[in-house]
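Lab meeting prep.
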Amino acid sequence: MPARNSRKIYLTNGYYHLYNRGVEKRTIFLDEQDYKVFLGYLKEYLLPKPTLELQEQLANQDINYKERATIVKILRLNNFSDDLKLLAYGLMPNHFHFEINQQDPETIDIFMNSLCTRYTMYFNAKYKRVGSLFQGVYKAVEITSEAQLLELSRYIHKQTLVLDNQPSSYLDYIEQRQTQWVHPEVILGYFSKSRPNLSYEYFINGDHDIGNIDKIILE
């Protein structure tokens, strides 16, 4: 029997909670570099690829072999900037969470498989190990209401804040950072910038119930 939330029919313009954790609940981020590499992969996948600029560089006869190989590698890399928006993310020592909006029903599966495979290759090479890093297929839960949309972002951010400020999109939500490949505006549109008691930060720091949400924690 497939694991819970491991198989989904994806919808055009659908919203989803995506997550996965290390096999046997093992740690998948062992140091700061691991977090940076994982976030770097997200950036490469989610920012628009400067294809024209890269092609012009490739046409330059003066670049060396190493530079040419790097450009070709970037051009061949998957890019999901047109079809996928990352609304929120949180990285924990042994798992991660994404809140995603996708336009093409095929995008999530390609994106998640690319990301997890690429990070596993990096991790295994660095730590001289072999085999799977993640616990099977990534999990996906469709978000079907505005209450779920907001509560999921709170769940993701509060997890990272409790455990010594793990990497997350929270700083983008309170305007202390502006990450080009994160889209907090979708959720922040439900909150006020001028009224503190209706702000996103107040929502995160309190226990304000805005409605029921399906179970979304890792099992």
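Slide two material, second protein:
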Amino acid sequence: MKPKVLKQNFSVKLFVLASLANFILLATLLVFSKVYFGSNIKVDSKENNIHYSASQDPLITKVPTLKDLLDGPIINNLDPNIGSDEAQVVIVIFSDFECQYCHSQEKVLAQVLANYEDKVRLIWKDYPSSDPDSKSFKAAVAGRCAGEQGKFWSFHDLLFASRDLDGSMFIKLAQELGLKEKTFSKCLEDIEIYKLIYDNIIEAQALDINGVPFIYVGKQEVLGEISYEELKRMVEAELKKN
């Protein structure tokens, strides 16, 4: 029986030594992790998980944001546009139907379009209030819905002329333009139209646009209302590049 006791004592001592060694190794790893990763280690107390922040670790490639990717407005056919697709100069305006300065700017843009005909293409970007219940946002939706029936620019002109952004006015303007009233009314609640407008808002924010009207003429950009002569000078500068 005596050798058996000695064997048990030896096993107990071996277990204690192994446990101590594991503890020391774990403590060393924790200290190393703290030194190496620093503030990149985050513990979720609810799920008791450890997360490593990629944004602070220089060894992990940063995922580019929209702001990182954009060096100018997005040019596509999802936004209302007028003029030739082959135009030498593209003008992009971020605007809001509730903005009085935007209203004045439209007259200047119309004059440029008339005088430069096929040389200029104009693209409209909505930048209303982000509140979907605001008159500003609802007017943007109404404009897009008129565009669904091929009447954006006509509706756009009537909206700026009336300066009344009440919901009942949208229906009156739709009737005036001969739009299909039921289709138009249904469109006013269409989430896909809302998404188009929010896409414009997100784009504007990524471009650091903090006011309207905001105009791009090629790579040139200007915030606020500008005169016909100023806009003409910008157009001419772009034409000389082509």
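Talking points for slide two:
The domain at 81-241 is CATH 3.40.30.10 (Glutaredoxin).
The beta strands are 41-44, 49-52, 81-82, 89-95, 120-126, 214-217, 220-223.
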